[in-house]
Amino acid sequence: MELRGKQKRYLRALANGYRPVFSIGKNGLSPVWLQEVTGALNKRELMKVNVLQNADVTTSDVKNYVEKNSNITVVQTIGRVLLLFMPSEDDENQNISKDVFKM
């Protein structure tokens, strides 16, 4: 899903005070990790992921892997932190995506 600039700015402002929920360490990327992230995003819709210094992957590797293997959108990368967005499948959890799609 491609987000417009106004939508990205809204999501970045919303996530300004967020702390990273998931980390990527020396075990790297795996389908199990991506499944856990997808499950968490289905509840939250927006979260940060941290790439630890001992990880064998870079933030661009993580971005490419996530976008290629799922319908998660990487909104922003700052240093070793990625901001991920995915609209929830449950109507009860669609608090953020309703506002984003109105823009």
UniProtKB/TrEMBL annotation:
Q: Where is the CRM domain?
A: 1-97
| A Pfam family annotated for this UniProt entry | CRS1_YhbY
**GO MF, one annotated term:** RNA binding
Q: Origin, by domain of life?
A: Bacteria
Query: Which InterPro entries does this one have?
Result: RNA-binding_CRM, RNA-binding_domain, YhbY-like_sf
The answer to keyword tRNA processing applying to this record is no
Record key words, sorted: RNA-binding
Query: SMART domains of this UniProt entry?
Result: CRS1_YhbY
Protein name listed in UniProt? CRM domain-containing protein
Question: PANTHER family given for it?
Answer: RNA-BINDING PROTEIN YHBY (PTHR40065)
